[in-house]
Amino acid sequence: MISYGSSHCTGRAIFSLSKNWETEVAEQRIVCIIENEIQRFQELQKILKDNYYSVCRIAANEVAFTAIVDAKPDLILLSAEITEINLYELTDTLNTDRRTIDIPVVFTTIPEDIDTRAKVIKSSDDLVLKPFDEREVIARIERQITVSKVRMALRESEAKFQSVMESAIDAIISSNAEGNILSWNKAAAAMFGYTEDEVIGKPIEVIIPERFRNAHAEGMNRVTTGGPSHVIGKTVELAAICKSGEEIPVELSLATWFLDDNRYYTGIIRDIEERKQAEQKFRSVTESAIDAIISANNKGEIISWNQAATRILQFAEEEAVGQRLEIIIPERFHDAHRNGMNRFTKHGVAHVIGKTVELVARTKRGDEIPIELSLSTWKVRDERYYTGIIRDIGERKRAEKELQEKSLEMKKKNQELEDTLKQINEMHNQMIIQEKMASLGRLSAGMAHELNNPAAAAQRSAAHLQGLLLKLQGVQARMATKDFDQQQIQKIIALDEMARERAKETVELNILTRTERESSLEQWLQDLGNMAPGEVVPALVNVGLVRDDLEAFLKPFHEEQFATVIAWLGLKIAIYSLVEEIGLATGRIVTLVKALKTYTYMDQAPVQSNDLRKELDNTLIILRSKLKKGIEVVRQYVEDFPVIEAYAGELNQVWTNLIDNAIDAMEGAGTIVVRAKRENQWVVVEIEDSGPGIKPEHMSKVFDPFFTTKPPGQGTGLGLNISRNLIVQKHHGKLSVKSKPGATCFTVHLPLEFQPTEKKNN
């Protein structure tokens, strides 16, 4: 149980020095008082409080130790007159427990109790006599707290030192001025094979090879007498000897220190056997390297130089080591080199470190050679070093120059090839145009005939129409002199409409019937007083009108009007028939021109959507003059045939070549089957003829340029070759042929997803 007096453990105390300002004192120290007499406790409490101590009162019972641990005091005041607990057991516990070992214990007792004073002095750190003198109490408390803090610091320092000693991977050995070993850590034991008990107090010579002991003794005497030291404050490489007698290479860092005017030495020893082996391996690697490997310190002095460096730069190792790097740097680059090293040292800015750069180096003879430099930096004990790997690239540069010259030559040849290829392509395109013109030439006669017939018919009808119109004007003038009532006028309008409709339907009559009807009708019209029945009779007969029809039509008219109306009706029918003939003729011309226009795609882009069925039909229209000779065309088109993107003009040239060849193969009689279908990701067009077939020996040659089986002057031998190129190269499709007697079929496969050649090349 812990009870507090009027002053509690408040951490920091604030006291007033004047009315207007305050200052903060150091953190209050805590003193635990174990005192059963209330008067004595209050007396101590007042003394401590007046001197800015915080007071904790601990009851003298079985939990007193626990209360002290919880309070964490700076000092304990323990009354020697307490009988409730065993004071000496309590102090023993306080002095041995890690939690309280550093808390000083001061007993309070009366001067007359000599025995108690003797006992408590052995168990405590100090003694305060009763009655209490404030100055003595405070002085003893201050002294014990200070001693406790120093003792704690020393123990902490010793613990830290011991921790460092035992955790160090290097051997740490201390000795006195006589060279006797004072400390020996675990790493030293592991390195040299001696336990600590085996070497403490022994001379340091136990780990010094015999051949070096005299030099060691001389050095110790020199330093002891005030002479210079060759190793103190430096790191040197030496040899040491183990308990087994084996010598090992070590690295020694030696320091000296003084205590009470006595000199001591501490050495940190590192086993560098592995490093030496690594250095040997590194040396082996560098000496076998084909590239120069050069190391330098931060002063730019060369510290290592391999055989390749001698071969490349011509300096021997003994000539280069210790020299500055400038011996291999052309003079014009010296300033840049020094500035770069200074810049990196001061600011860490490197333009070449960690990179591979091309430079020039100077050889011993003064020659400059092109090199490739890879530079790296590393540190040892805060000292910076540089290693450069230098490759002689003179051969490579010569090869590059030669390659460049050859590249220029190849570029020139490639340009020549490109020019040649361009000429070939131009010639090929010209051949395509020539073949297309040849195809058009073969079609021109048929097209001229096809266009000439309707054009001539239209011309004749137009000329005839002009004469009939003049005659119609005369008849209409005579009709104007006739008095037609309203019913008759309506009948004339109806007859005009009837004439227009009748003119659209010509009645097919044999020659005998036609002659009989014309003669009968002409005689009837003459009897009626018609002066020129021959001009209207053929027109009336052509539309199937006879005397009975005309009499029925003309009932509303009286005798004086009859002959004039008949003449007017006949001219109207003739005129409407001629107009119909002109319409049919010009319509035929329009159809032919449209087919030809679509076929050639004169006003459209090269790449467009195509319904191949329509294009095939247009090609058949163009070739109709050749198909009239007895050739039957069978179309087999699937209904869901897809529209594709393609070069329409080129494809029409293919269809023309294939169909024209089929027509020629059948020699004017046979059947051509044109199929259009879909197969997976292809659209397929087949053109099959019933001709004699292609001879087996010709099958492998049909697509070769200039190969033809046609008589001289009837074929260029380019049609199928050009067709295959247009399908394969420009449309990324396929063109194949199968043939046997009575059936030759050319098959074209075109991709559904077409990629124009221009886009693909880009």
Secondary structure: elements and pairs:
Layout (H helix, E strand, L loop, with lengths): L1 E2 L10 E3 L5 E3 L5 E5 L3 H13 L3 E5 L5 H8 L3 E5 L7 H10 L8 E5 L4 H10 L2 E4 L4 H34 L3 E6 L4 E4 L1 H7 L3 H4 L13 H12 L10 E7 L5 E13 L2 E10 L1 H16 L3 E6 L4 E4 L1 H7 L3 H4 L13 H14 L8 E7 L5 E13 L2 E10 L1 H87 L5 H17 L8 H17 L9 H6 L4 H7 L5 H42 L6 E4 L1 H11 L1 H4 L3 E7 L6 E4 H19 L3 E10 L2 E8 L29 H12 L3 E7 L2 E9 L5 H5 L1
Parallel strand pairs: 4-5, 4-6, 6-7, 7-8, 20-22
Antiparallel strand pairs: 1-5, 2-3, 9-10, 9-13, 11-12, 12-13, 14-15, 14-18, 16-17, 17-18, 19-21, 22-23, 23-25, 24-25
Q: What are its keywords?
A:
762 residues, alpha+beta, Beta-Lactamase, 5 domains, 6-stranded mixed sheet, 25 strands, elongated
Q: State the secondary-structure class.
A: alpha+beta
DSSP strand content:
15-25%
Largest beta sheet: what is the strand line-up? 1-5-4-6-7-8
The number of distinct β-strands equals 25
Shape type: elongated
Radius of gyration using CA atoms only: 64 Å
Low-confidence stretches: 1-26
Task: Tell me the distance between the termini.
Answer: 95 Å
What's the helix count?
A: 23
Q: In the residues, how many domains can be counted?
A: 5
Task: Describe the 3D structure.
The chain is α+β, with helices and mostly antiparallel strands and about 750 residues long. The protein is built from 23 helices and 25 strands. The protein folds into 5 domains: about 1-160, Rossmann fold; about 170-270, Beta-Lactamase; about 275-390, Beta-Lactamase (2-Layer Sandwich); about 400-600, no CATH class; about 610-760, Heat Shock Protein 90. Strand 14 (about 290-295) and strand 15 form a beta hairpin. The longest helix is centred in the middle third of the chain and has 87 residues, at about 395-480. It is elongated, with a radius of gyration of 64 Å. It starts with a strand and ends with a helix. The model is unreliable at about 1-25 (pLDDT under 50).
